[in-house]
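User: I'm curious what two different proteins look like when written out as structure tokens. Can you demonstrate?

Assistant: Sure. I'll show them one after the other, since each token string lines up with its own sequence. Here's the first protein:
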Amino acid sequence: MELKIYNTNGSETGRTINVDDSIFAIQPNDHAIYLDCKQYLADQRQGTHKSKERSENAHSTRKLKRQKGTGGARSGDLKSPVFVGGGTIFGPKPRDYRFKLNVKVKRLARRSALSYKVADNALTILEDFSFDAPKTKSMVQILNNLKINDKKSLIVIEKPNNFVSLSARNLQNVRVVNACELNTYDILNASNVVLCEGALPEISRVLASN
């Protein structure tokens, strides 16, 4: 498959690049996408939630009333879950939400997500660019030229570039990632994906057919 290459002015360069059909033009696998996104979101969870159980509450163990003869239900101490301020029954405990997912499934999910973007005309190949200094205005100008300034965008660059990353840091709808950090959730969460030309070889290397 051949895709057009655009420059930072938003116009076609007259060049095209041949991309791997096994990455950008496959039949998407929705279940693989679901599993990869689920794992990504699970990894973001701290899992530090905790509620106090009966034995952890700082209350007196004095019995509140006699066992029989009151006409009401029997009760123990204030730690009982039936009283306000008592312990929580089966409350949340700290846990690790991470789970294992096979590398082949993750690659399939990323290829499926990229194929969806190509099919929706939501993927742009952009010439490599850089800035002499961090400047948000310059990044906004590029997005305006590409006519995606009002959409949630994902920009994939070849390697870490502080000037490019810092230029997009204050833009709410723009995320910059390195080619080696590309993940399914970020691809699908963006309305438009902008792949820098230099990032394609790294993407092809990581997502090559198994």
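Here's a second, unrelated protein for contrast:
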Amino acid sequence: MEFHQIRYFLMVAENLNFTRAAKLCHVSQPALTRAIQKLEGELGGDLFNRDGRAVTLSPLGHLMREHLQRINETQGMARAAAKSFLDENSTELNVGVMCTIGPDVLSAFLNDFRSRHHDALVILHDIGPEALPELLFTGALDCAFVASHGANGFGELAVHELFEEHMVVAFAGGHRFSAMENIDLHEIAEEAYVDRLKCEMRQPFFEYMDRNNLNLRVVCSSQREDWIQELVIRGLGVSVMPRYSITTGRLGWRQFSGPLSNSRKILIARADGLEPSSTADAFFTDAEVFQWDTTLAVFEENATPL
């Protein structure tokens, strides 16, 4: 059970309208609905009765509303206590990072930022896209590094594109793919596949393969990027992953070809309309003007694909 699920439930319980609740929580309605469905699965029953457009609390919903309201209030008190404890001139900076974004390139920027802001304490938080808007609009996060395929879909958030990243096919040393310059998607269907559950392009990738009768032979799935890479290194299968998320020279990779988009954009996002702290504003501005191209060139120069 996660705090954003509780907040979404309470907002729907108050408004009895999923569309209005989603707007008030600054998330899309599908994201809010999925979060509540996940909460219902964890609790073991429906929280709402849905009859067409009419929404009412179920008996379980009535029972859980009081309990979840107390949890939400406790969270608010904890946050208030933490803020009162911290010095008013604190330079603590809470930054979200989507788990599929690799550390090598971002760490170069973080090192550069810290060299000019010695008093800043940067706290990195692993986040998912569904909870991002609420975390930013409530002030739990000052800003976030996010990945986007195609239209960014971040609604009211202010975003700035930092760099583009290719998706590649990763494989173990000695694999037949190492002899190829570019890998066709048909070739992937002939291999055992390690499935990255947190991949932003996972759904269109699987849909494309299915439409073209290319049956992926998934042998293992995981939300953990480090586990995925180690499993591929061990020869369990191949996997499609972001180029800069590869953190080891023991992993081979090649770009793939086909009609499916093979790149994504890395963005920095923050809540539009909120007044950021001076440190948060400096962080966002520094990310906008950072020499990402130079950092990527150094990354590629030091990388030797198998």
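A detail about the second structure: The mean pLDDT is 86.
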